[in-house]
Amino acid sequence: MAGASEEKTEKPTPKKRKQARKDGQVPRTPELGGWLGLLIVSLAMGPLLDHELNALRTMMATSLRSAERPSVSLATTLLGDAGRHMFVSLLVLGSMVLVIGVVSALAQGGFFLSPKLAKPDPKKLDPFKGAKRLLGPHALWEGVKVLGKSSVVAFLAWGAVTSMMPLVGGLLPIHVVLHEVSAEVSRLILTVALAGLVMAAADYAMMRRRIGKQLRMSHSEIKQEHKQAEGDPLVKGAIRARQLAAARNRMIADVATADVLLVNPTHVAVALRYDPDRGAPRVVARGAGAIAARIRSVAAEERVPLVQDVPLARALYRHCQVGHEIPRELWAAVAQVLAFVLSRRNAGQYGGEHRTPRRTDDLPDVLALSRRRRVAGGA
Length: 379
Description:
- This is Flagellar biosynthesis protein FlhB.
- InterPro entries: T3SS_substrate_exporter, T3SS_substrate_exporter_C.
- It comes from Nocardioides humi.
- Keywords: Cell projection, Cilium, Flagellum, Membrane, Transmembrane, Transmembrane helix.
- This protein is α/β, with parallel strands linked by helices.
- It folds into two domains: 189 residues, no CATH class; 124 residues, name from scop, CATH 3.40.1690.10.
- The protein has 14 helices and five strands.
- Strand 2 and strand 3 form a beta hairpin.
- It is elongated, with a radius of gyration of 45 Å.
């Protein structure tokens, strides 16, 4: 409940914006493409009208000359020329409007498909929410837009009509009237298009502000999103615990392959396996406390000999990891233990608990793992 009532004052995160784009919440106004298209039409209308008027005069002169000797073929040619001129003009204007529409859509965030908007939503049929939308700030802004556009267009059209009234008296030649009227109409469309672009820019700014306000997030939402991105600590801890348990189980299973288990005598246990083809003996299992007790139990079941050697077991536990070779400094001490174990195995004796065959408890100092790596790298 606290998270639901918390004030949303933070800017949306990139993930929130991406999800909003998928849901169709993108600031855009369809009027921008329309007004830009009208602007292009107004700029191109003058040259097009001049071209078409010249073509019309040519066609009229040709028609009057052909009236002396009319024929079906000549009439068909005239109709074909007229249709071609009309098609080219409409094609040019339509292509420009299409290009402007595509450019305006790309400028407002590009094209996107939102399947969520196509799905039927019963919430949209709620009459209370519908009334709220009709009487809300967005509906008020839409009403202001319609009123503003109508007022601007009416004012500009009235000015254009007033300026063209002296041309209606019939005192001027028709070609002058047509030229002036076309120029005035072009100016009217250009002025309306520029005014419409200003209103479209205001509409886009309002849409951007409204959607930005809708996408604002609270502190708790940002923390929750960050937690989902980084992973829940409880879930990560559980996964880590399962991974450690699986590794521990594999280690316990490898105790059966060990040649000897060095113990201390109950707190520490280190199992070693010696393979002449792989060099020095390796640690296959190690543990302390309860894990050491479990290693001892498995070793007893698998008849792996247990050798009690307190200093050697402690040194191996301190300086070795599972899968690593024993340090060079402990080779001689471990060799004595392995020689004892292998001699018993050759005699057909397996398992059991034994005291160390070493005659002294002294061991050479063992370099730390990082120092051993530096020495090996320098060698």
